[in-house]
Amino acid sequence: MLQTDLLTLEQVIEARHSVRKYDPQAVIPKEDLQEILRLAAQAPSSWNLQHWRFLVVTDQAVKEKLLPIANGQQQVVDAYATIIILGDLEADKSARPVYEGAVAKGAMSQQVADTLIGQIEGAYASNPALARDEAIRNASFAAMQLMLAAKAKGYDTCPMGGFNRDALIEALNIPARYLPTLMITLGKASAAAHPSDRFDLTQLVIENQFTS
């Protein structure tokens, strides 16, 4: 059921800022965290392969383990959760369950499903770079959606690319199938985010084509 006090999408986008100082005592109810993750998982993905996985770290001892991996950024400890966004390097393996599920629900014919599965498996087999590109690209869709969902629920986030990927993989036993693309801290701010200027659209938008 819709609530009348919900922010509009425009307000959520305007309100979201990268917060680096969190209240370590703030707790996010399980149902709120699950809803944020559910909404994040509604992001679009190539072939609907849903290339993202969310490694959610709330245990204080594990967050402390993340501190040196994240180059001493205290936010990974103080935020209620640090969520590692993983990209699936073997997302082609999801094709069959995705499309056979669609067939079972009557959403497509077996012939169409077989054609799509063949296209996906062929694309991954013929282009080794595709797996990494698709993992990063599609996981990024879910990461942005997660941050907007969190803001809509009244929580703060910060995307982090400054961490030691190899050390993270070893510390959290991340399988080779998954590529850590981002850390996102999630919690309640204890201090406002730093203000940030944005380029005017005249500096960002190219109409139709570049001119020589």
Protein described:
This protein is an alpha+beta fold. It has one domain (9-97, 124-204): NADH Oxidase (3-Layer(aba) Sandwich), CATH 3.40.109.10. The protein contains nine helices and four strands, in the order H-H-E-H-H-E-H-H-H-E-H-E-H. It has helices at 9-15, 30-40, 60-69, 75-78, 95-104, 110-126, 128-152, 165-171, 201-204, and strands spanning 52-57, 81-88, 156-160, 178-187. The chain has a four-stranded antiparallel β-sheet with strand order 1-2-4-3. Helix 5 packs antiparallel against helix 6.
CATH class: Alpha Beta
Number of domains: 1
Tell me the fraction of residues in β-strands, as a range.
5-15%
Reported for the largest beta sheet, the result is: 4 strands, antiparallel
Q: Do you know the CATH topology?
A: NADH Oxidase
Distance between the termini: 53 Å
Global morphology = globular
User: SSE order, as H and E?
Assistant: HHEHHEHHHEHEH
Number of strands: 4
How many helices? The count is 9
Binned, the helix content reads 40-55%
Would you tell me the structural class of the helices and strands? alpha+beta
CATH superfamily: NADH Oxidase
Radius of gyration: 19 Å
Spans of at least 5 consecutive residues whose pLDDT stays below 50 are none
Mean pLDDT: 95
Quickly give the CATH architecture. Answer: 3-Layer(aba) Sandwich
InterPro entries: Nitroreductase, Nitroreductase-like
Organism: Brevibacillus panacihumi W25
Domain Nitroreductase: 13-188
Protein name: NAD(P)H nitroreductase
